[in-house]
Write a structure and sequence with these properties.
- 66% of the residues lie in helices and 15% in strands.
- It is an alpha/beta fold and 136 residues long.
- The chain has a single domain, classed as Rossmann fold.
- α6 packs across α7.
């Protein structure tokens, strides 16, 4: 069986009623693992009690949580610099791309795909590090 990490935008969209059919297909094709980076993004953005409960339940029920390693952090910094310079990104964009880079590098280390509606940023990661992307 193959593994996948769902990007935070997938969870948010799902909770808003999107991606039902696509996620059913993903669940048949992949074992979904949780990324500590994605869980952190979701917790940071959970501003209502209901949203906080959703995120807390997701974390509490996840069987396995994958986190970036020290080498992932080191490689992410180089990727952000290289891609950011090539794309002409300002500091804010570089900061926001850091989480995507960490998610992508963690997925690559585990041989997993990243499921995301964020095609542009993850396409850059696919091109640079070869992480498999499943676009929604």
């Amino acid at each position: 069986m193959r593994y996948a990490i769902l990007d935070a935008a997938v969870y948010i969209g799902h909770w808003e009623g999107l991606y039902q059919a696509q996620l059913a297909t993903i669940r048949r094709q992949y074992v979904v693992r949780q990324s500590s980076v994605v869980l952190s993004e979701l917790r940071r953005g959970a501003r209502t009690p209901a949203a906080r409960r959703l995120v807390e339940t997701l974390r509490r029920t996840c069987a396995i949580e994958w986190a970036p390693s020290a080498p992932d952090w080191w490689e992410a910094a180089a990727l952000i610099r290289e891609i950011g310079d090539a794309e002409g990104w300002e500091t804010t964009k570089r900061r926001s791309f850091q989480n995507d880079a960490l998610i992508g590098l963690t997925a690559r280390r585990h041989g997993a795909a990243v499921v995301t509606p964020n095609r542009a940023d993850f396409a850059l990661l696919h091109k640079k590090v070869g992480v498999e992307i499943v676009p929604l």
